[in-house]
Write a structure and sequence with these properties.
single chain; 385 residues; alpha/beta; Aspartate Aminotransferase, domain 2; Aspartate Aminotransferase, domain 1; 2 domains; 7-stranded mixed beta sheet; 5-stranded mixed beta sheet; 38% helix; globular; binds pyridoxal-5'-phosphate
């Protein structure tokens, strides 16, 4: 079956008791057992819940994994992935990663004795030179955040495996519609389900999908031992979001491409970071690695400084000034002061997060309305300079 058919039918079997076409929401925390010491399919909702299991089943199928595990948020899922490591282990992470992941690696994992090196994952020779004998996990994002860098996932998988490390991919921006890292050799794929999977800015969630049963079992043990699970209501919303994921993502990509082209032709804009533009350094890899779209996130450097970009972000009407992304409504933010504020100034400079960078999450509104909104906000921001 095709992706969009599986998104609707796998894990969404009709209710055998009532015939309801939507599986019921299971709020129970505990389940009656057939006998003392005889366990049924479900016993306690931290260990397993039918509504969460339904979402995990659909997502695992869409990512071509053997299984998936749903967590309370994207960061909770990423944290669980790092818990496969022990003190003394080393992580090589891409330099274009979400600010919260940067913070997790540098301020939480370090306290557990885990060492971290950030390196440019778009330059494989540089990336490889960051490896150490004790490197056990490689963590990348593609497209990256906020510079929309594109990393060759298959090449990174080969590199990681040759050194005995696991490859984890934060695929939040790409969604399983556009990229399926497990098919490219990655061991773990992570999504902040808060974003495109939920799709409506009304839930928090995270998910890991894996292609190896042993790894799935290790992660399941970690999840159950730490109690880091997605609640039934959020699981229900995530399952519902998956049903329209492909349609939303394809349309959002189409509008994002048009906005990128519009901005690239505007003299008020210094540069546009979007892999759908042929001049983007990752364009060729993205064209090969992504299925029929380049994502609906883009960043651009506005002429001017920190204050100009700040004013731009504060002057839009349709693009709402907020972190997060991936929902039906378009959002705008300034990475230097918002999503990547957890990088200190020196780290921002080192990773190319300039003060005049503006990041857009393109939603489902009409292109013309979004274009006009950006036009008036740029005019207002630059007029005050
Ligand atoms: C690329 C990326 N990864 C991970 C996360 C963290 O997800 P959550 O906010 O669901 O914890 C985010 C959140 O913005 C993100 O953009």
């Amino acid at each position: 079956m095709q992706f969009r058919t599986r998104a609707i039918h796998v894990g969404n079997e009709r209710d055998s008791q009532t015939g309801a076409v939507v599986p019921p929401l299971h709020l129970a925390s505990t389940f009656v057992q057939p006998g003392a010491g005889v366990w049924g399919e479900y016993d306690y909702s931290r260990s397993g819940n039918p509504t969460r299991a339904a979402f995990e089943k659909t997502l695992a199928d869409l990512e071509s994994g053997v299984g998936a595990l749903a967590f309370a948020s994207g960061m909770a899922a990423t944290h669980a992935a790092t818990m496969v490591l022990s003190a003394g282990d080393h992580v090589v992470a891409g330099s274009d990663i979400y600010g919260g992941t940067f913070r997790l690696l540098h301020k939480i994992c370090n306290r557990a004795g885990i060492k971290v090196t950030l390196a440019d994952s778009t330059d494989l020779a540089k990336f490889e030179s960051a490896f150490r004998p004790e490197t056990k996990l490689v963590w990348i994002e593609s497209p990256g955040n906020p510079r929309m860098t594109i990393t060759d996932i298959a090449a990174c998988a080969k590199l990681a495996h040759a050194r005995g490390a696991l490859l984890g991919v934060d695929s939040t921006f790409a969604t399983p519609v556009l990229t399926r890292p497990l098919e490219l050799g990655a061991d773990i794929v992570m999504h902040s389900a808060t974003k495109y999977i939920g799709g409506h800015s009304d839930m928090l969630g995270g998910v890991l999908a894996v292609r190896d049963k042993d790894l799935r079992d290790r992660l399941y043990f970690i999840q159950n031992a730490t109690g880091n699970v997605l609640g039934p209501w959020e699981s229900y919303l995530a399952s519902r979001g998956l049903k329209t994921l492909e349609l939303r993502v394809r349309e959002q990509c189409r509008t994002a491409q048009r906005i990128a082209e519009y901005l690239a032709a505007d003299p008020r804009v210094e540069s546009v970071l979007y892999a759908g533009l042929p001049g983007h350094p990752g364009h060729d890899i993205a064209a090969r690695q992504m299925h029929g779209g380049f994502g609906a996130m883009l960043s651009f450097a506005l002429q001017g400084d920190f204050q100009t970009a700040k004013r731009m972000c504060e002057s839009t009407h349709l693009f709402q000034l907020a972190v997060s992304l991936g929902a039906v409504e378009s959002l705008i933010e300034q990475p230097a002061s918002m999503s990547h504020a957890s990088y200190d100034a020196a780290a921002r400079v080192e990773h190319g997060i300039t003060d005049n960078l503006v990041r857009l999450s393109v939603g489902l509104e009409a292109f013309e309305d979004l274009r006009d909104d950006l036009d008036q906000a740029m005019a207002k921001a630059l007029k005050a300079t």
